[in-house]
Fold this sequence. Notes:
Layout: E1 6-12, E2 16-17, E3 23-33, E4 46-53, H1 63-78, E5 84-90, E6 94-98, E7 105-106, H2 109-120, H3 130-143, E8 148-155, H4 166-174, E9 179-185, H5 191-200, E10 205-208, H6 214-226, E11 233-239, E12 243-252, E13 256-257, E14 263-265, E15 268-272, E16 279-289, E17 299-309, E18 313-314, E19 319-325, H7 329-332, H8 337-360, H9 364-381, H10 384-390, E20 394-396, E21 402-404, H11 410-419, E22 443-444, E23 451-452
Parallel strand pairs: 2-19, 4-5, 4-8, 8-9, 9-10
Antiparallel strand pairs: 1-3, 3-16, 5-6, 5-7, 11-15, 11-17, 12-13, 12-16, 14-15, 17-18, 17-19, 20-21, 22-23
Helix pairs in contact: 1-2, 1-6, 3-4, 5-11, 8-9, 9-10, 10-11
Amino acid sequence: MPETPSFTLQLSQNKYLAPADERMDAVLTVRVGDAGTTAVADPPRTAELLLVDCSSSMDWPPTKIEAARHACRVAVDSLRDGVLFGVVECTAHAELVYPATPELAVAGDRTRHEARAAVSGLIAGGGTAMSQWLDLARELFARNPAAIRHAVLLTDGKNESDRMGALDAALDRCRGEFACDARGIGDDWEPRDLQRIASALRGSADAVLEDTELAGDFRRLVEQAMGRTVPDLRLRLTTMPYTRLRFVKQVFPTEVDLTAQCRSDGRVLELPTGAWGDEQREYHLCLDVDAAELTRHEDRLLGTVALLEGADTVVSERLPVVGYLTDDLALSSVPDENVARITGQAELGRAVRAGWDAFEREDRAEAAREWGVAYRLATDLGNAEILKRLTRLIDVREDGAVAIKDGVRPRDGFSLVLGSTISTYTAEPVAAPARPVVGGAPRECVHCGHKARPAAKRCGRCGELFEDPAGAPS
């Protein structure tokens, strides 16, 4: 029997603040269940667009354009009956090659057969102007109303046919209109462009390591989009007169800064989070706090968080973000387990990207140093995906020294850079830490100067591991 989707919102924080603290960090975990298409009686309508780069560079090697054709055919075959869909040929312009009119096709045996034939006729020739591709997608989705709107964008080149600022302007127009997953194929595209697209349009960005893998990736992305039956969930954040939002980021499954997407009405802010299926996401909420307005040794409300669906339906309890002002470092310096993990993940991403920047400017020593930091952080965090991507570029000796491999392909570097936003799932929210019984002087972080309890393993501000008296990480 069809189920009603279930919604769960959890909040994890260490409520204790020192008088000098200026921020409160919390992790919000959102889970949606029973939202798959097999569980919902009348799933909302879905529209899918395939945006395929057909610029001249897709012709060499010829396996690229053939891989794109094959991936489109596989994606079309995976569409369930009734889904609206279209295929766009993308060069310095954008053209809908199937169907022939701006009214998207309705998936069925006949239209899938016609689309496969149209896709087989895609040829490479022309430039690359991604703003044109996204603007046409926005127009097509607007003409063909659907609650779930999703695009897959494939490119092999740099956005060289666009005028300056055109891509950012197009992303502003498209933000909130549809979701887009972006993929790069080959070795001559710009990962930062794909990351900008994915961040603005609530999607993922990644590199195609082998052309033969593209079809499976297209199928997975389309099936994932079709499995989303909750068109939109919103986080409602309410601040107090003595607090304000510093930032809010999605931190699982990928890291995306969403602060600019919040809609503000005084002290009430709403963050659209896009369409959902059966899945879990996590968000890092950071509030600026005027500690002078707090009273010592009592709980004070810093803000509230709730989850909303549809027009204005609250589907979770309203959770409090609490602050407790104390002079006791043993309380205020203990980082919340989840907050410490996402802080480490942010540092991992920084090290990965800094290493790539050094590699691009041919500073292999600096790249090896930063990727060594990234390797140790990924190991500490248990981030197997980043470790897999890192080891395509580096060798790690038994003594911990890092060397960059010979013959690194650009696509392997692109994969690592885009993968730097992939995070691990944090542990279940834990209760506020109990007051520990420890002796000794507080530990001081050599990286940021923050003081922590004597038994602390990691800095509560910057996430760096403390060193033991012998100089090895504790």
